[in-house]
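S.,

Sequence below, as promised.
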Amino acid sequence: MNTLVATMIASLLTLGIAGAWAEEVQGRIKTTDPRERAFTLENGTRIWVAEGVRMTPVQAGREVMAIYEERDGKKIATTVDLVETP
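The prediction came back faster than expected:
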C-alpha cells in the first residue's frame, strides 16, 4: 500500500514539474528568421520553433500564441497558433 501511495505522489510531482516548464506567450510577430526557425515579437521576445512544428503561421504582422519550453537558454515553441482578431 505504501508503495502505491509513493508511486502516485511521485507521478503527480513529475506531472506538476513538467507542466511548470511550459509557458505561453502571445503577441504580434515583428520579424522572422526562417533559416534559424525563429521569430521575434513586437515586445522583443525571441522564439525558436521546434523541429516538426509547422512554420506556416510565422509571418510578420500576424498575431500568434506560442507554447514554449526553455532549453539551453532559448524559448523553443512546441506549438504556434494564429490568434483570431475581430
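Strands lie at 22-33, 38-41, 46-49, 63-71, 74-82.

Coffee later?
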